[in-house]
Specification:
Layout (H helix, E strand, L loop, with lengths): L7 E3 H8 L3 H10 L8 E2 L4 E4 H11 L34 H5 L15 H11 L20 E4 L6 H10 L4 E6 L2 H12 L7 E5 L15 E6 L29 H11 L1 E11 L1 H5 L4 H10 L2 E6 L13 E6 L9 E6 L13 H9 L5 E5 H5 L7 H4 L8 H20 L15 E3 H6 L3 E4 L10 E4 L6 E2 L10 E7 L6 H13 L12 H6 L1 E3 L3 H41 L17 H8 L1
Parallel strand pairs: 4-5, 4-7, 5-6, 7-8, 9-11
Antiparallel strand pairs: 1-3, 2-3, 8-10, 9-10, 11-12, 13-18, 14-17, 15-16, 15-17
Helix pairs in contact: 1-2, 5-6, 14-18, 16-18
């Protein structure tokens, strides 16, 4: 159902309408007394008059991005394109279906994006301007270029393409999981730009529902599934899509790369995410060499760790272009951005990539194709890019001393706990019982989290206590409001971490539903005892964050020290710092052995 079918809207709907975050709507309510007052709903999920909201947005200039694209004259939302499922019939959306699906969020800043959303924006920004058809009306005629994602999951990549090109392209996707396809349809139908789309369900390799676009797509973007042990090589051994060679059973990513390439028209571009293994695996050498030899492979880009949609994934982007006649470039651009301190510093606009490629940047190396073919066709950018070291010896000394001091402080923060004076077995209580007693309330994930709420996260991440900052609004699966006079938030979050983590999760968000959450148990303890546990848990969580930051900083310092040795800033002679704590002389002797 479209917003126009209702007289009342929630804060989340206002955020989508105005193209801002939900936190921005909460700020408007606090900062502007004239903001429309709630006309219904509840204290934590109020509703507002749609007419009043639209008048206020236009009067204040906050409505410059009003999502009116796609509205019909009656106010209902237009579904842009056919949506086919395994039966081949159109799927009839019901209000109950919409209620159980995550809603498409509004346009946000780079700092607000998840790693998967940031990766999608980066990949979409690598597509050339020629991908779009200038002046297109967005119809279904053959003149409107199509952009494909054959492993579209919940349409994050397709939405990034829509954000960039709008109605000047059409979108087509396929996803093997029906639940993810449903989410993709919901998100694309809520996209205010009105980009036309079609989404299919099925196995892209075994049952290609996008085969009508073979050799005709203007572009393909794809983050294939990285966790599959093997691809169906036996069933597809003679498939014509393997233009550069049949991949080995465990080289499924090379099958996806060629599947994407097979759909490109001449001069069409594909941006495909792969893991480092695919860049060096011996079994894939002949395919990598064929891609290089043909001129199809244009760029290999190493991204900072953790930029994939899966946590802690190392992601490399292969940019391929189908030649029109003879290959028009004799080199492969190798780009090593893996050492960037912040993933948000990766170019995410086409002009930024043009600037990076147009200057003598130390992260970019143009490697002749013959050089790549003279060996094992190793496609790791770190093999071909040597980062210049601009730091001096004094700079390295200061950083090393500082890092050493931080490690000492972190180690001194490690707590030493005592043994309990009495047995610690406690009776337990379910969250459902606590909710019935008024100790807590499980609120809608669309509500704005407040400081002190316990947040259950998506993708299997542990529960956390909300801090009242913008970070609270990312990846929320459930919001638990507690009565702080009867329950400690850190106590609840940490005991939930163990109990909730032991339960199976079947949905694509990787999070418990409300019924499962209500069955979770926590110890039944007095508030004073809860707070003792909560203080200990909070200290350990803060220490965990500090140590994780130190690990990243230490790896960066070591890597830069290696480059300093290579560049000649440092000599290979070194000394070790003496201990400044109370470690024993015997321990010192062990380290010298």
């Amino acid at each position: 159902m479209g917003l126009g079918e209702h007289d009342e809207v929630t804060a989340a709907a206002i955020a989508r309408l105005a193209g801002v975050s939900r936190a921005a709507v909460a700020n408007w309510r606090r900062r502007y007394p004239e903001f429309p007052k709630p006309v219904g709903g509840s204290e934590h999920s109020p509703t507002f008059s749609l007419d009043e909201v639209e008048v206020w947005l236009k009067a204040t200039g906050k409505g410059d991005q009003l999502s009116t694209a796609g509205r019909t004259e009656t106010g209902t939302q237009r579904v842009n394109g056919p949506v086919t499922f395994p039966s081949g019939s159109l799927y009839a959306w019901e209000s109950s279906d919409l209620d159980r699906l995550p809603e498409q969020g509004p346009e946000r800043g780079i700092a607000d994006l998840t790693s998967g959303e940031l990766l999608a924006r980066v990949m979409a920004s690598l597509l050339p301007r020629s991908t779009a058809s200038a002046g297109s009306s967005g119809g279904w005629d053959a003149d409107v270029p199509v952009v494909l994602d054959p492993a579209c999951s919940e349409a994050t990549l397709l939405l990034a393409v829509a954000d960039r090109f709008g109605t000047e392209v059409r979108l087509a996707g396929q996803e093997i999981q029906l639940s993810a396809t449903e989410v993709a349809v919901q998100r694309l139908s809520n996209n205010p730009l009105g980009t036309l789309y079609e989404i299919h369900t099925g196995d892209s390799l075994l049952d290609n529902r996008l085969d009508g676009y073979l050799g005709t797509a203007a572009a393909v973007v794809c983050e294939p599934p990285f966790d599959l042990p093997q691809w169906p090589s036996a069933e597809l051994a003679t498939d014509p899509r393997w233009e550069f060679g049949t991949p080995a059973p465990r080289d499924g990513e090379l099958a996806w790369v060629q599947h994407c390439y097979a759909h490109l028209r001449p001069r069409g571009v594909a941006v495909v995410a792969v893991t480092p293994r695919t860049c060096v695996q011996p079994s894939g050498q002949h395919i990598r060499a064929a891609l290089v030899r043909s001129g199809a492979l244009r760029d290999v880009i190493a991204l900072p760790k953790g930029m994939g949609s899966a946590p802690d994934t190392d992601v490399y982007l292969w940019v391929l272009q189908r030649p029109y006649g003879a290959p028009d470039h004799r080199e492969v651009r190798m780009v090593d951005l893996s050492k960037l301190g912040d993933a948000a510093d990766v170019p995410h606009e086409f002009a930024a990539w043009e600037r990076l490629f147009g200057v003598a940047d130390p992260t970019v190396s143009r490697v002749p194709r013959l050089e790549l073919l003279d060996g094992d066709a190793n496609l790791l950018p770190s093999r071909h890019v040597t980062t210049r070291s601009e730091a001096s010896l004094d700079d390295f000394a200061r950083v090393t001393d500082r890092l050493h001091a931080l490690h000492l402080r972190a180690v001194q923060g490690l707590p030493r706990f005592t043994a309990p004076t009495a047995p610690t077995r406690h009776s337990s209580v379910t969250l459902g019982e606590l909710e019935r007693a008024g100790v807590l309330t499980i609120r809608s994930r669309d509500d704005t989290p407040r400081a002190g709420d316990v947040l259950l996260r998506t993708l299997g991440r542990p529960p956390v206590v909300a801090t009242g900052t913008a970070e609270d609004d990312t990846g929320v699966a459930q919001i638990i409001e507690i009565d702080p006079g009867r329950l400690d938030a850190h106590f609840l979050a940490t005991f939930l971490r163990a109990d909730a983590g032991a339960l199976p999760v079947a949905n694509t968000l990787g999070a418990l539903n409300r019924d499962d959450l209500r069955r979770c148990r926590v110890p039944r303890l007095p508030l004073a005892e809860q707070r003792r546990y909560g203080d200990a848990f909070r200290h350990l969580r803060e220490l965990e964050d500090v140590l994780a930051a130190l690990e990243r900083a230490s790896a960066h310092v070591i890597e830069q020290t290696v480059y300093g040795l290579i560049a000649g800033v440092l000599a290979p002679e070194f000394t070790l710092m003496k201990n400044t704590d109370d470690t024993s002389a015997a321990d010192e002797e062990k380290r010298e052995l």
